[in-house]
Structures are given as structure tokens and as C-alpha cells.
Amino acid sequence: MIKRSQSPPFTRPLFGSENSAVWLAAIVGLSLSFAALLLIQKQLEAHKLLDFEWVAHNRIRALNHGLDNSMLAVSTLRDHVAASGGVNDEGFGVFAQSLLDRHQGLKLLIWISGLAHPERIEDLPEGHVVSNLEVGGRPGFNLAASPRFAETLARAREQGRMAASGRIAYRSPEGGTQYGFMTASPVYDRFEPSSDGPENNRDPDGFIVGFFQLGDLINDAISILEPRGVEILILDESAPTPDRFLHFYASRLSPRDIDATNYAEWWHDAVETKVTERVQVADRQLAIVCGRTGLFRSAEAFQQGPWMVLAAGLVFTVLLSFYLARIRENNRERTAMELQLVEREELFRQMTETVDEAFWATAADSYELLYLSPAYGRIIGSDVGIDRPSLLDAAHPDDRETLARALERTANDGSDTEVVHRIRRADGMLRWVRTRGFAVRDDEGNIYRVVGFVEDITERKLADEALRESEAKLRDMFQHSPDIIMTVDFHGKVLLMNRSIPALPSERAVGRNALALMPRDLRAWFRKALKQVFRKGVIRQFQYSADDATYWEGRVVPINDDDGQISAAMVIAADVTDKRNLEEQALHNARLASIGVLAAGVAHEINNPNNAIQFNAALVSRAWSDITPILREYSEEHGDFALGGLSFAESCDTYPRLLSEISHNSDRIRRIVQNLKHMSRQDTGKLSEIVDIQQVLEATVMILHNQIQKFTDFFALEVPDGLPTVSGNSQQLEQVFVNVLLNALQSLPDRSRKIQLGAAYDSDNNIVLVTVQDEGRGIAERDMGRLTEPFFSTRTDAGGTGLGLSISRSIMEKLGGSLGFESRLGSGTTVTIRIPVTHPA
Fold first, then answer.
1. CB of 806 within 8 A of CB of 789?
2. Which of 27, 55, 181, 239 is the most exposed place for a label (fewest CB within 10 A)?
3. What is the band of 599 on the pLDDT scale with cuts at 50, 70, 90?
4. What is the mean pLDDT of residues 109-133?
5. What mean pLDDT do residues 163-184 have?
6. What is the C-alpha R_g of the chain?
7. Quick check: 514 and 488 in contact, CB under 8 A?
């Protein structure tokens, strides 16, 4: 048990001499900091007010300059008209439009000739009105309807100079009511002497009328200035109090809506922080009022000065308090360090004597041990002490030189040493140990000692070797697995992959996103499934088909670490193409069996009404034969008569033929039903039946009669008499002929192409040759070798399964025969079926 030294507690009164100095320093520092804060705040507020007044005058000058320029544009147009001696529509429009383009606030220029006073501005000629209010040139409101229009013209005529109206309301394009004003400037003939002013008593030649949008005019004048948090109110002091409001410009830093209904509230709020100037616009006087917002940006650089002074004072106070407190703590720390030194020495001794690792220390210039902990004796199985000369003594002779070079390298260049080597215990047993060494330097950086420890790692070494062997076996099994196995992290990055795939080698796949290896149709599902696996710990399964007609099944499985947390996910994909093909083949066979059973049932149901048709047809035929002489005798005595809509003479020729066709077609139905029942019977697999090829071919043609009529108008069956019988299975041979003939029919591009089905006896080889020749599309050279492969079809888009010729080949191989194919692309195909003859003709 480790015993710690007990030190007496250090106790001091809270308000002793040392604590009093700390509290006094804190109070003095805080008082000075707050005093400096208040002084600097007052100075900054005064500077801020002066800065606001300068910014307000700057904006008023910019606005006044914009007003003067806009008024000058109207005067310029007036002088242009006067100098021209009249108005040319085209020249007036070009010159007026250039003025509108240069002055954003000027939106409308009108030339009114003589004393004309139109009821509507729209009554003026097209060229007398130039507007930027909307594209097209005409104004979007009736300016003449305003009573201020006539009043302004009258004042301009009376004064003989430019006159300005009061505010004029209009609807802005963005919605809402805005205000503007108009000016009217009289135009006099330049060749007649005149004088501006009230003393001019002659009538002007006309008026130049301009309309100004205050919003655009102010924005154009102020937008070039940096936003500083200043709002502008424009009032018409020449107007009655209710009509004085013209426009409110909201700061870009804090926009808000002020209109004629609530500007008085703004005036009251800004009464202490506003600057007012009055400007003359024609014969009216406007007041421009600037107010400061709460976000006003002062040009004063030291905005945070008071708080910085306060913060500096607080920091100084805290530092001073800490300095004084530190002096008080020095005595405590010095005593505590002495106690800690004693405790650490005791702890080091207890640690080196109780842990399993053996600590050692040597001089830098020799292997002589300066210190060796008792644990070394437990490692080598004997009691050793400081008198043991070197670590090399217990080392295995084959490892001793390696250990010596490593310790020498540490002593020379200061690099760390780690050597895994063997030692021989006192009882002769070999053990594995790990020896580590570190250089110790003096104050000048010179190595004067080497220290380290020795650790017995025999069990770990054996476990590592077993683990490596197990990993090698697992790696072999992992890499040789027929399935594709990879582990991914939460983001889908591949951590490990067992083998290469056509898209990417396994060594290049590590570190890439697994989505790049997935088919495009599967990527969205895989991304979602991976999130569910990591969040919920579920297993997700998937299936997909690749572009190379292979089928894959897989699953995404979570991998838990030692703490039970999901650290990765394993993706396993298996090629199930063969399994899928076998399942499809079994399903197809089951479907064919179901069709056979259904055909047998249908054949039974058809036989019942067909037997009635045959019986009734025979009965009606005999009745017709019996009644014909009576009807003929009646016809001779009374003349011809109608029977069923036909004359008796026509009925004598027609009815026997109709009855014969009924009997013939009924017999044909009976033969088709017999063939269906024949196909639906369970195939016993016997190949020893005596089969008449001619009968099998005729049954085949009967089964495919509708298909033949659907695909071609030229079909021929040529079977010579005396064809020898063969030994086999009639059902299986019939299936072969049906498959081959159906493929030939489906290859025809139109009904004008023909098919010839024939049979012949080859006496030299003692075989029956059945040939199917078609004039279809033919088969490509690359596909000729795969025609009888299972599930290979050139008509998969039309429902082909690729099983017909594969089954036919298997049947012919069991019969000892074969299938042969000859084809030319675009010309047709010939299929030759060779059947061995067991009983020659």
C-alpha cells in the first residue's frame, strides 16, 4: 500500500493582510476604469453629433445638386425650343429623350404650344410628349386632370418664368402611392424683345412642362454616397400643412415606410437629432430634413474606446489581483513541491518494483547497469541485482549483436531503441522480450545516460503468430470467395475489397466511393440503404441485373465494434445468373405443363359440342337426300320456288356443299383436338416407339395451322411416300418440329416470303432428313454458334425465351440425331434435322 505524507493545512483569515491588498487593488482599478468609460463616452457622443451634422449637410448638398440639374434640364429644353423657333416633333423627341436619360428623377417632358390647354395630355400630338414613365412614350396617368396643372401654367404665364406645382400623387409600378411635382416654363420667341418677370405682359409661344419623381431623383443623388444611417424628409413649405409631405428617403441600413399619414411621428422622434435646410425650386420653397437612425455609422475610429478602456482597466485589476494572490501562494507551493517530491520518489520506487516491466539505466559510454528493477529477475527466472554487469548477458547468442548495435546507436545519436529478441531463462527456457531504450541529455544537450525497460512478450508473440496465421487463412478464404465482398464506411468509401471486378481492380477500389461500382439504377437505393444500416443496424438485401445479362443478389450487413457500435458495413454480392436461369427454365416448364393440362381440358370441352355438330350434320344430310325428290317433283308441277332465300335450283347445288363443309370442318376440329390431347399427355420418356415421320409432320402442320396462315401465304409440305419409320418418341419429335417451324415462321418479314417443310431418306447414312427452309431475315455470323445455348434468343424484345432450340437439341441428342443450321443474313435459314433409322424401308 502506498502511504502519502500528510501536510498541515494552510489557513488564513479572509481579510488578513494579504487578502486586504488584493481587495484594495481591485476596488481602485474598477473605480478608475468606470470613470474613464464615462469621460470617453461623452467625448464620442459629441464627436458623433458633429459627424452627423456634416453627413446631413453632405446629403442635402447632393440632393440640392440633383434638383438643380433636373430644373436645368427643363430650362435647357425651353432654350432649345426658343432657339429653334418652333417644335420639330422628331428633333424635340430626340433632345427631350436625351435629357430624360441623363436625369433619373425627370420622367416626363411636354411641349404645349400657344395658350392650348388640352383636357388630357393624351390629346396632344404624339411628338409633343416624351416620357420615361413606361416603355412606349406616353404617360401612365392623366396629368392634365390634376387642378395643379392649370394653376401651375397660369402662374408661369403670369410670372413669365418657371413655376413649380405642389405635390402630385401617382401609383408607382411596385404598388402604393408616391408623390412628385411638375414645373412649367414659358417659351417666348427669341426674335421679339422680352423680359422675364411679371412685367412681361405678352403671351408666351408655349410651355415646357416637366414631371419629377422625387423617389428616383433622391435615389440617384444619394446612391453614390456611402450608407451612413441617415433618413431624409422633404416638405413643401409653400403648400398648406396637410399637403406639405413630398417624400421620405429611408436609410439603406434600416429601411422603413414613412408616408403623409405618419411623418409627424418621425419628426417628433428625430427632433433632437435632425438637420434642416431650405432650398428654392422654381417659385416654391422646399424643406429638406435629415434625421439620424439608431444604426448611424459615425466616422469616429475609436467607437469602442470606452469599453476598451473599461476592459483594459478590468484586465489590469485582475492581473494585479492575481499577482498579489500569487505571492501569497508561493509559500504554499514551495512546501507542497517538497512533499510531492518525496511522494514521487516513493511512487517511482513502488512502480518499478511492482509492474511487470523491468526498468534499467546505463551510462552512455558503457553497457554497465546503473539501475535494474527487481522485475528483471522475474523475467529471467532468477534473483539479480545491480551487480549484474549488462543486459546482453541474458540475451540469446543469435540476438546479442543486434541488441548491442541498437543500444550503441541510441547512445551515439540519441534515437530511440526497440528490439524484439529472445532471452534464455535460468531454467533454460527461451522467452521473447521487447527491449526499449531512450537517450537522456544534460542541459547542454549531450547524451550522458541511456534508460529503458524490458517487457516479456512471449504470450503476445505467440498470439500474434497465431493471429497472423488465422488472418492468412481468412484472407485466402476472403480473396478466393466466388462472391464480391467489400466493407464500406458511413459515407460509402470502400475500406476493403476481396477481388477485382470488370469495372475496377480491387487495389484501386479501396478509398473510392462504392457508388461508382454500382449500376446507376441501384445507386439511389444503396445510398438510402447504407444510412438505414448504420442508423438502425438492419440488414438490407438487393437484386439487380447487369448490362452483361448477369443477375446478382446481395445484402448490406452492419459490422459492430467491441463497444457494440456500428463501425462499418459489409456489402456481399453473389452472381446468381445460373440459379436465375434454372428458376426461369423451371417456371417455363411449369407454365408449359399448365398449358398442357389446360389444353387437355379444353379438348374435352370442345369434343362434346363437336360430336353434336357431326351427328346433326349427318342427320340433316340424310334428311336432305330424302326430301330432295319430293321438292324436285313439286318444282316440276308448280314451278321454281324459294327455299331459304335461294331458288330451288340453287339450293340443290348449295345445300349439299354446305352440309359437306360442316362435316369436313367438324372432322378438322376433331383432329386438332386429338393433337392437343396428344401433346398434353404425360411424356413417359420412352424412345423405343415406332414413329411415322409423315404423321408427325402432318400433326405439326395441323397444330401450327393458324400461325402458318398468320405469317405466310406460301407454305409447302413435301413428304415422299414410303418414308421409313424411326425409333423414338412421337411427342418429343413433334416438339422439335414445332419449335423449328415456329422459329422459321417468326423470322419472316412479311407474308410474301415462303417456307418449305420437307423430308427425305438418306440411304447411304441410313437417316431421315427433315428440312425447314425459310426466306426470313437470316442469322448473324456471330450468333450461329450460340443458337442452341439455353436462354439465348435474338427475339428477347418480342417474348423469345431462348429455350426452344436448346430443348430440341437435347431431344435429338437423346435420339442419336442432330440439328444443323445454314443461314445467310437477309436471305433465309435452312434447318436440317437428322434422325437415325432403325428399320430401313
1. yes
2. 27
3. low
4. 69
5. 81
6. 57
7. yes
Length of the chain: 841
Q: Which three cell numbers stand for residue 498?
A: 476481396
**Nearest 5°: phi and psi at 340?**
-65, -40
pLDDT of residue 183: 92
Domain 686-836 bears CATH identifier 3.30.565.10 = yes
Q: Say how far apart CA 163 and CA 185 lie, in whole Å.
A: 6
Of 149, 139, 157, the residue nearest 182 (C-alpha):
149
User: Is the dihedral angle over the CA atoms 102, 106, 111, 114 positive or is it negative?
Assistant: negative
Specify whether the CB–CB gap between 177 and 169 falls below 8 A: yes
Predicted local distance difference test score (pLDDT) of residue 163: 92
Rounded CA-CA distance 606/496 in Å is 66
The full DSSP string for 752-769 is: TSEEEEEEEEETTTTEEE
Could you give the C-alpha distances from 699 to 258, 589, 607, 704, in angstroms and in order?
Answer: 100, 22, 18, 9
Domain 49-292 has CATH 3.40.1080.10: no
- Computed from CA positions of residues 497, 501, 504, 507, in that sequence, does the dihedral angle turn out positive or negative? positive
**What's phi and psi for 698, nearest 5 deg?**
-65, -40
Mean pLDDT for the stretch of residues 794-798: 58
Helix axes 17-84, 214-222, angle to 10 degrees: 120
User: In sequence order, which residues have a C-beta less than 8 Å from that of residue 98 and are 6 or more positions away?
Assistant: none
Separation between Cα atoms, residue 595 and residue 699, nearest integer Å: 18
Confidence bin at 33 (pLDDT 50/70/90): low
Break the chain into its structural domains and give their ranges. 49-292, 355-463, 481-575, 686-836
Per the CB < 8 A criterion, the answer to whether 539 and 527 are in contact is no
**Whether the domain at 481-575 and the domain at 686-836 fall into the same CATH topology:** no
First vs last C-alpha separation in the chain:
114
3-class secondary-structure state, position 111: strand
Q: Which residues contact 483 (CB under 8 A, 6 or more apart)?
A: 572, 573, 574, 575
> Between 146 and 16, where is the model more confident?
146
Cell digits of residue 372: 535494474
The fold of 481-575 is Beta-Lactamase (3.30.450)
What is the DSSP-derived secondary structure letter of residue 504? Answer: B
- Provide the 10 A C-beta neighbour count for residue 183: 25
Strand partners, 646: 643
Q: pLDDT grade, residue 672 (50/70/90)?
A: low
Give residue 97's Cα distance to chain centre. Answer: 51
Nearest alpha carbon to residue 778 among 769, 787, 789? 787
- Hey, what CATH topology would domain 355-463 get? Beta-Lactamase (3.30.450)
Cell 437423346 sits at which residue? Answer: 814
